[in-house]
């Protein structure tokens, strides 16, 4: 993979998408990227991400902690050199979602936060193009069989976006509260959805 100009990091995935441009996926740098991520998670539209009200330093600390884990990883997506999305991957059997469904070999969980519309406003196909790159990276680049997502059941826009992308609606579940020294997550009613590799790359 090429070295991207954004921080000099090596892209773990690079994909040219017709009519959109090139998407590069880089490992998130908690220190260098905290400002960008903080700007996104602080917006009202990102309320379901659960970081509204946090300082930039708190966001940096959260991702610095994530960076120490073998089971959870964070990535930044760039489109023509500009940050356009945040991808977090995790092993479902090492996460609370694994208590709520039957984990299959080859499963991987993801959380996705897309950047707000740029100066030119929303563009048709923008979200689908970034999600396409994320799906290719996770299913092909990481050699996984199935992706699981767990958006808040009230986040109708995110659920609809996943379903348009080919995800299959699963059950509504209650993710248990997590209260540990390093992390606190409140109880969450989530809509599970799944994307199999053969569905994402159907001929």
Automatic annotation (TrEMBL):
Gene3D superfamilies to which the protein is assigned, alphabetical: 3.40.630.30
Keyword Cell membrane: no
Record-linked Pfam families: Acetyltransf_8
Protein name, entry field: Lysine N-acyltransferase MbtK
Keywords for this protein: Acyltransferase, Transferase
Domain of life: Bacteria
SUPFAM superfamilies, alphabetized: Acyl-CoA N-acyltransferases (Nat)
Pathway membership, UniProt: Siderophore biosynthesis; mycobactin biosynthesis
GO molecular function terms listed in the Swiss-Prot or TrEMBL record: acyltransferase activity
Function per UniProt: Acyltransferase required for the direct transfer of medium- to long-chain fatty acyl moieties from a carrier protein (MbtL) on to the epsilon-amino group of lysine residue in the mycobactin core.
Domain Acyltransferase MbtK/IucB-like conserved: start-end pairs: 26-74
């Amino acid at each position: 993979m090429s070295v991207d100009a954004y921080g000099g990091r090596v892209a773990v995935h690079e994909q040219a998408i017709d009519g959109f441009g090139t998407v590069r996926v880089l490992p998130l740098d908690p220190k260098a990227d905290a400002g960008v991520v903080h700007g996104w998670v602080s917006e009202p539209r990102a309320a379901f991400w659960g970081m509204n009200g946090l300082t930039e330093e708190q966001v940096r600390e959260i991702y610095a902690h994530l960076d120490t884990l073998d089971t959870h990883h964070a990535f930044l997506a760039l489109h023509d050199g500009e940050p356009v999305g945040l991808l977090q991957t995790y092993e479902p059997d090492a996460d609370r979602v694994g208590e709520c469904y039957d984990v299959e070999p080859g499963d991987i969980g993801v959380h996705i936060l897309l950047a707000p519309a740029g100066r030119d406003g929303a563009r048709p196909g923008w979200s689908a193009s970034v999600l396409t790159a994320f799906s290719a990276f996770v299913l092909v680049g990481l050699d996984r069989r199935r992706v699981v997502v767990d958006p808040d059941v009230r986040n109708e826009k995110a659920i609809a976006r996943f379903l348009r992308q080919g995800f299959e609606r699963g059950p509504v579940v209650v993710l248990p509260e997590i209260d540990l020294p390093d992390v606190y997550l409140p109880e969450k009613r989530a809509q599970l959805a799944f994307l199999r590799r053969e569905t994402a790359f159907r001929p």
